[in-house]
Every structure is written in structure tokens, then in C-alpha cells.
Amino acid sequence: APPPRCARNRREPYTGAMDVYDFDGTLYEGDSTADFLRFCAGRHPRILTTLPRTALAAFECLGLKWISKTQFKEMLYRFLPKVPDIHREVEAFWASHERKIAGPCRPQPGDVVISAGPEFLLRPMCEKRGLALIASPVDPITGRTLGPNCSNEQKVVRLQAEYPGTPVSRFFSDSHNDDPLAALAEEAFMVKNGRLEPWSFE
Known about the structure:
Structural class: alpha/beta
Order of helices and strands: EHHHHEHEHEHEE
Radius of gyration: 17 Å
Shape: globular
Number of helices: 7
Strand order of the largest sheet: 3-2-1-4-5-6
Helix content: 25-40%
Strand content: 15-25%
């Protein structure tokens, strides 16, 4: 495993290279958005009425390639208006799911998390741990996506917009979808079977 980095104050500009982490499958064991949907559906069963259309959208996106990931996510987030108090629900979710933030990565305060997950869901946990966050913009009340899904090449676009000219020292992820961002880092590590391995580009 790589050595730990010194902590940084995330409110101060970077003067050197940064460490950057994916969230789902990297810092969080599993998919936090899917877990949040299941969590909410268990507490508010009327959410289940949105699932057939969401499943069809998943097939259209991942199988048929008819719609973009952003369009799929907008269909997925149709469950949000059926949640009575979304902010309280997010708080309750993390109270029971924070234990799933585990694994070999050990980000330090001031490091950067970049994720395709919705910003409103990930921000409370990242702020609690002093981590800067770049994620997909989603209205938590209406479920509307407010910008492109933060995945693949879009992660590079967002990172460079937030931290122009700042080099990436180390990058951590569990997916080759992040090859574009891994290519920018001085070192990149793949989270695989609970261990860190040097990145191997496909």
C-alpha cells in the first residue's frame, strides 16, 4: 500500500500535487446510490412504483446504448420526489451505512473525492471527513440532473475546472471507467479484492 499523505486544509488552494479518490467501490463498499434507493424504498414503499421504468432505462443505457448515462440517472432519480424529507433521509442513511466506508484507501483531510454519485448524497460524509468533493449535480427535491453525469472523461473536465493546473499525485479507483483520470496521475492504484494494485490500463 502507498504511504499516507500529510493532511491538508481543503479550504486553502493546493500548492503541490493532490491525491484524488473515486467513491463507490473505492472508499465505499458497493454503490451508495443503489444502497440509498433501497434504503428509501424500504421506508417509503411508494418508491417501488418508479423501479420498472428505472430498470428499463438501465437496459436502454447499459445494454442497448440508446440513452446516455446522464439520461439514465435522471430516470433513476425519479424516486426522489417521493421521499418526504430528503435531507433527513440522507442523514438516516449515513447513520446506518457509514460503516461501509472501509477498505485499503486512507484519504486525508483535504484530499479530493470525485464521483458519479449525486453531490447531495455524498457531501455530508465527505464534509464530515474533511474531503473536498466533486460529484454529479442533482436536485434532491425534484430529482432533476443539473449537469452531465460526473464519470469517465467528465471527471477530468470537472477536476481541471475546479483545480486548474494542479497536478494529481495519486489516484485511486476500482474501475477502468476512470482510465482518463488515472492517466493524469503520477501514480494510479486500482482497488481490487480489498487490496491496492498498480493501475494497468486496458
